[in-house]
Amino acid sequence: MKALVKTKRGVGNVEIRDVEVPKAGRDQVIIEVKSAGLCGTDYHIYHDEYKSNPPVTLGHEVAGVIAETGPGVNGLKSGDRVTTETYFATCGSCPMCRGGKPNLCPDRISIGSMTNGGMTKYLLVPAGNVHLLPGNVDFKAGSLTEPLACVIHSLLDMSNIRPADMVVVSGPGPIGLLACQVVKQCGAYTIVIGTGNDRERLELSRELGADRIIVADEEDPWKIIAELTDGHGADVVCECAGAEGSVRTCLQLVRRAGQYVQIGLAGQPVKFDIDQVIFKEIPIRGGFASIPSSWTRALKMMELGFVKTAPLVSHAMPITEWEKAFETFKEKSGLKIVLTPVE
Ligand SMILES: [Zn+2]
Ligand SMILES: [Zn+2]
User: Fold this and answer.
1) In this predicted model, what pLDDT tens digit does every residue of 43-58 receive, in sequence order?
2) pTM value?
3) Distance 160 CA to ligand 1 centre (A)
4) Is the separation of the CB atoms in 229 and 248 below 8 Å?
5) What angle do CA 131, 120, 82 make, to 5 degrees?
6) Whole-angstrom distance, CA of residue 268 vs CA of residue 58
7) Measured between alpha carbons, how far is residue 4 from residues 39, 55, 233 in Å?
8) What is the DSSP code (8-state) at residue 312?
9) Beta-carbon neighbour count of residue 155 at 10 Å?
10) Which of 24, 105, 7, 131 is nearest to 58 (CA)?
């Protein structure tokens, strides 16, 4: 079968290769992939800014159907519409695993970076990682369960957003637009900040529930936030762009004793005024990937229509057009790009 493979470490070294079809062992299943989201992590792996174990098939945002179940698998059968968590294996015995934080296990092996992922036709995963997709969520929308689970982990487990909080979401990419919807569901007044290039994305954020949008290169974000908060600043800022300018803006906009949540990955060190953390007494929180409970909540929010992922899918391309997909990702000319397998 054809797969999009990182062939060795270093910048680039990504190509379509013929790889072996996997076989389900004990407590494992094979998913026939229908949609695999392209994510910042794949882009960082391409640029060797994120750890990988080549040769390895990329792709960790997956939806598809069960094609095969190995011995010992209960509750799943061929044809079930599913998505999967991304940890192929964790040690199970370190303090993080035992403390309910398998996402932080130092021996964690994730699909799409440390072991084969879903940018191919058949994907091998542990049965315990698999979740059924709600009937109202199609495969493309379902492949966004993973980024939604990550956003839910950062916003609901690692920070505390309450009704009527003034919350800034900076960066209206796919992650920001998911964050915007989750923040809105917490009952917060939701402000989304982008640049002039993000105009369409900002409009979409309004359709998805944002109360106020700010075009940072045309309006002064601080002036608007100050007006909305009697000069105090936002209760919570969620940085979703992974960009230095956005990090600085967020630190400026957060109020004293507010909360700063980092969701965007920058892929490189970022310069910011750390003294603000002291002057304002702000905790800086980040959530790495997700934990199992993030997935059940993500799927429930999608089933109930509280979060819509379908409007975020702008492109679907076969994996053989991966170069065009990466280019489109880099140019930000779309939103979420999903890749589909080829025969
Ligand atoms: Zn991702
Ligand atoms: Zn562990």
Assistant:
1) 999 999 889 999 999 9
2) 0.94
3) 23
4) no
5) 15
6) 21
7) 14, 10, 45
8) G
9) 27
10) 7
